[in-house]
Amino acid sequence: MRTLVLLPGFMCDADLWTDMVPDLQKISHLHYGNVYQDDTLEGMARRVLSEAPEKFVLVGFSMGGFVARVLTLMAPERVTGVAFVATSAREYTMEERERRQQGFLPGNRPKANGNALGLHPDRDRDPVLLDRLRGMQRRLGPEVRKRQSALIRKDGYADLQRIACPAVVIACRQDRLRTLAETERMAENLPQARFEVIEDCGHMAPLEKPHELAERLANWIERAGL
Question: Which one of 37, 65, 103, 216 is most buried, by most CB atoms within 10 A?
Answer without folding.
Answer: 65
